[in-house]
Fold each of these.
Amino acid sequence: DIEDVGHKYYLELELEDVLDKGRTVNCTAEVLYHLGSKSTAPDVQLTVQGELRGTEEADQEFYNRIRSLEKELVAENIPDSHGNVPLELEPIHLLAWAASGYVIWQNSTENTEFHLAQVKHVKQVKRSDEDLQFDYVLLLHEMVSQEVIPWEVTVLWHPQHPARVSWDRRQLGHTLG
Amino acid sequence: DQVLHIVPETFQQVQHLQLLCSTLMLDLWKPLLPENIGAGEDLHIRVPAPLVQEVKDSLDQHMISYRVLIPDVQKLVDQSMPRERSSHRQISGGYVYTEYHPMEEIYQWMTQIQKDNSELVTQHFLGKTFENRAMYYLQISQPSNKPKKIIWMDCGIHAREWISPAFCQWFVKEILQNYKSDPKIRRFLQNLDLYVLPVLNIDGYIYSWEEDRLWRKNRSPYENGTCYGTDLNRNFNSSWGSVGVSFNCSSDVFCGSGPESEPETRAVAQFIKSKRSDILCYLTIHSYGQLILTPYGSTTRPPSNSEELMQVAKEAAAALTGKYGTSYRVGSTALILYNNSGSSRDWVHTIGIPLSYTFELRDTGAHGFILPANQIQPTCEETM
């Protein structure tokens, strides 16, 4: 408890590589939730103790594959109702997961717990520069309210740069009736 | 196993690669034979996992550059397999328990299960849903002249939690398949009857198959048909409407127009009330979260038998973890999850049923409600 400022948490985390189970990396983090303010994201400091797996080859391949598509990529419901993700859409799913992490961070308080429930829709937008752009509609599940919230997120990515959310907005209206 | 892509530049490199392939007997994908390896031409080799490091070291030593074309061959194989329609151990007269089934098939399954196990199983009508569908539960009961206590389990109160009905079906199958060979199950059934309701929120479940995979509530209309659905697990008569709910129909935790306002809730409540002196244990299955929750959600004041409740739950969690290492947390809803009122688990306890639990099955958020079908078996096995 930090008077007049907020609540600070000290965390020791173990990250597991989703694509290489058994491979873990330890991290420490400090998270500060600001008092009162609902519109400021919590401050996060993260230290990764160790190395993350290199993914240059796979990154380059994905990049080349998408760049060489004649029509822009469009997809829906990732995963499908049964939990399946087609092989070629896995990187799209992973990118959505990373983007959802950013949106969740920006909208978290001590009384929320968000998870990415599903990618409702994704559309590639061709760009004149080197980046790949994907416009997503993500469905975020919030545990306390049990709501599933559609969120529009634009993600930019390039093999040599980390993924960036360039724009995001909570979608107005309801997820279906 | 990995597949490497190499373009040898010099004749020396070609020779070294040919030697490597024949000595280690590597699987050449392109070209077919080592003698066809040529400078400036694509070479694809599959390297068995235990040799990957050795091969890469050798390539590095000889300054031969390579690219990993496929980082995990097995994964690719698994993903490109058509969804298996049958997995031997799971077939019980052809029904595949490792897949999710639509309501039509679950109705048929219930009829079939009763037919195939008529000495133990009877199907009973419980009531009707809002959209007029029949709700059935299965009674698994060993014939005997002594009265028996009851364990009740319901699944699928929330439409999107597909792993829950899948578990109820699995549970029934396991009990019936192993009844003859497992003395534990026989002893169990000597003294207890099992009542299983595979899908409580049938309308919602169907809606999650046909319209909206992430639907949670039932399908009763409010506000002149402009808004649908009550959260059935906020609709029971336990501190109804007090906390953790919304009075707005558009919320996913809308508690209805009053306690037991929904036909599905009434059907279950009526039945449980009528049998309340015989019911020993009430289980309601949900996902996700990996939790075993005890009463109450509306207050942190512990129930009168909280020690016993916790002890049984802890033993259950330990047994569960013992199977595949999946960890479950145990405790009162208000303390470890969130405040809520009107839950079936709480109501059942307030009318005198001593052991009342909510199970939140796998996982903890990575897949959430959309748990892949390949996790049905391990989830059900550990929960069993």
Note: The first helix of chain B runs from residue 11 to 24.
Amino acid sequence: MSTVDEPLYPIAVLIDELKNDDIQLRLNSIRRLSTIARALGEERTRKELIPFLSENNDDDDEVLLAMAEELGVFIPYVGGVEHAHVLLPPLETLCTVEETCVRDKAVESLCRIGSQMRESDLVDWFIPLVKRLAAGEWFTARVSACGLFHIAYPSAPDMFKTELRSIYSQLCQDDMPMVRRAAATNLGKFAATVEAAHLKTDIMSMFEDLTQDDQDSVRLLAVESCAALGKLLEPQDCVAHILPVIVSFSQDKSWRVRYMVANQLYELCEAVGPEPTRTDLVPAYVRLLRDNEAEVRIAAAGKVTKFCRILSPELAIQHILPCVKELSSDSSQHVRSALASVIMGMAPVLGKDATIEQLLPIFLSLLKDEFPDVRLNIISKLDQVNQVIGIDLLSQSLLPAIVELAEDRHWRVRLAIIEYIPLLASQLGVGFFDDKLGALCMQWLEDKVHSIRDAAANNLKRLAEEFGPEWSIQHIVPQVLDKITNPHYLYRMTILHAVSLLAPVMGSEITCSTLLPVIVTASKDKVPNIKFNVAKVLQSTIPIVDQSVVEKTIRPCLIDLAEDPDVDVRFFANQALQSIDHMMSS
Amino acid sequence: MNGGDGEDVASTVAGPVAPLEWKFTQVFGELALGEEVQEVDVITSLEFNKSGDHLATGDRGGRVVLFERADRKEHGGNRRDLETVDYSVSRYPEFRYKVEFQSHEPEFDNLRSLEIEEKVSNIQWCQTANGALILLSSNEKTIKLWKVQEKRVKKISNLNIDLSKAEGIVSVTSSSVSSSSEQHFTYGSFLDCPRNCLSDNLFIPPGGIPSLHLPVVKSGETRLIARSKRVYAKAHHYHINSISNNSDGETFISADDLRINLWNLEVNIQSFNIVDLKPVNMEDLTEVITSAVFHPIHCNVLAYSSSRGSIRLIDLRQSALCDSHSKIYEEQLAPGSRTFFTEIIASISDVKFAKDGRYMLSRDFMTLKLWDVNMDSGPVATFKVHEHLRPKLCDLYENECIFDKFACCLSGDGQRAVTGSYSNMFRVFGCASGSAEATTLEANKNPMRRLVMTSARSSRSLCSGFTHAVRLERPGLGSGNSFDSTRKLLHLAWHPSENLIACAAANSLYMYCA
């Protein structure tokens, strides 16, 4: 054994720990693999480190995952692209392990390396690797192989191309559903690299096999490749080959398949062109909007805006809008909720008249929905509504909905609406806010739930930022400060918190004149929790106010607190005092 | 023994399949004379994997024990212990102990003040990948995914930092699992710092630093390591009665008394409820789920059985929540035949699909029923298992044996079915039409001692001669009295491709082949 010089010690430790018993240390070493490689030099990395990694591949999954990731960016450390192929063997073994995330990462790294490799090296090293994996004994290897074809194929000589296509076709008919699923998932990527002539023959026949698979889980992945393939084909081929498949999928026995169609359908519209869209896809989509299964309607309702954008307004009004109307009173709240989150996007498509005439009633009924989620989804898209129908019309129906949500008995609902208040305020303007929402904002400060009080304090800060200090001094600050006399100390704490948040927004002058006296008064509170919070608030106000104020007001107050009988109060007071000293010295 | 009569009956059997001659092959965990059964050792589940090369058992103590096929050359041919024994001329399938691990520990549910037993009540094998054995095991609340894999024990040497010369410098531990003789050092602050603050701008010459080298790893023996990969917990309010893997290789179900949940094997943080029998008012509850199983081929079909004796088939394609079944299989009882026990003994304790998915086998307290998936009007065959106990239902109710949940199994070819009984007996029936095979065996080393063949197959209403057969086989004990309700054979499994039955009698695992 050799001895190691002092400066090399850290690297030596790092190398030794590649094989430590402690998994954290092994992980640490693997994550610094590039450092180890640089220390060994390119040649020894190729000849020693990489074979070493290939041999030691029965480590824990966490370590293997890290190794798969590191090797993906390892080309510079083995001497550049001309040596990139040495990285393939360790990744090849990682492609066969049983843990999915390790395999996926290994495939990702192989793709990254493969896309940089020279064409001749791809033929010599990468393509044989893909073939070996595709013929692997375990399904894990074959699953991984499916994700590598799109890298291997483009640079392959013709003879290999034919072979690769036929191997992929075998994978599409593998015994194991896992392999067929992987083949279905990657079909789109592979098809994008295949020549147009073979696309129509070989790829389409693989696609047809997959669409007729016994397993739902395979068929529903085939749906995903519909859109991808559709974009590659000429419109007329797409109409001839993809359209019938998607139409039959939209009536599949399995709701999961229909669900996938509902999610993907709009992507196919462009590929097939306007006429087949009108004759085939719109009816299919309407069927999905009226599906028996709520999950399918949820997916379809969520895409209603995207779908309408592709259509002409007449088609949308004629076919889609009636369905939307039905969905707005759907028996499932989740369907209504999905609809509520996208429905406003339809307004620009339909134009102002149709919006006011047809969409607004739906919109208003959703705003009065019995489920808070539905109402919240509408309110969250308020900016889009405002542009189309104007604030006056909106405010009449909006306000009752907001007030109701603000007083909902589930605190999470109240929390959600509080988060939208600044957005509402900016949309609706100062006037509306003063009249209607101001009181609500104050009311939340005295909520029974801490998270709500906390959010209310934050909300005031955001409002102050939105409307400026002058507005705040009139409409927020007095009301807040009034509440400092609340008999319950938890509410007084909330006010203190609100004050500390407002201070930076209000600026030095208002802080000194209005806020600071209140804080100082609070330092005489009988509850220690209030007192040490005063200390914390004072500490946070130090940077805001002038040094003279610090010395005249804050320091004496803290000194008093530093002699409090309560240990926590003394602690935080001293901490604040230290930070004053620190400020002064710097 | 009145063996002659038994043979007479056997000789009258006329069917396409000849009855099998069962031979004892192996026993694991046999009690020595006078040894008491340890409660924790009692086997509570057992299952062959898909190839039949492995068998897993779970016990009340929360342990899972794996056995592997030992009479095949290609299986682990590289292992030394295989080479020392000549298995090439094997007369019968032989299994050997492979590995054992603690799957579940006793727990306490603090929210509901309930003890959760560690008992492994279900085992399901998953698709073997890359040489690793993967299986699911569950107790009454929690399901776990296990990976059992061979790991090489490594000896690390030739480190950069020589431990023996480490003098004042606090050095690293680098011992491998096996090298316990080496000294263990702890990390000091001196080393912690450089490891973590190792700067990337450390000067390294272009050719690297020649004095550094990689450690040398020597592989030693291999060891089997079982690791818990995922835990699927907190999804069941009631006791899990069954888990079942889907043919798609990525999902499984778990069923408790009122609900069935669907899981993805890769995701342990969410499951989807697909069947929910829980009524708004629990007083309206009329039945509970007793067992659930996926179809062996169609990934969208599953069957579940209920305490009222029905089997429902549901199609997952139909809707996300499958409260309405697509088919229901139940046998209409003849009116007037109802007694106090009718409903209790109708409860199905186990339901299984045949390998091709065409037939289902169900077990209730008195009978074993074979159903054709395409015929929901009634079973195609009913095999009377406990008819001789009918006069004793009162006693069985009092000692709660009437609630015992016996498992059942179909052979790989679907020609025969097996189920357990009391007195450590199990019965094998011929399912093929025309077959009258009905063999009773006792789980001990001499199973044929009490073997009797009789025509127990009843065509629905025809009451067979099984009670007669019982008298034949136990003439010494007097009629009807011949059972020991404390020795129950609840769990058994049929090898997927061969005539090999594994059955659990208390803490012993018996294997029989034919």
Note: The longest helix of chain B spans residues 3-11.
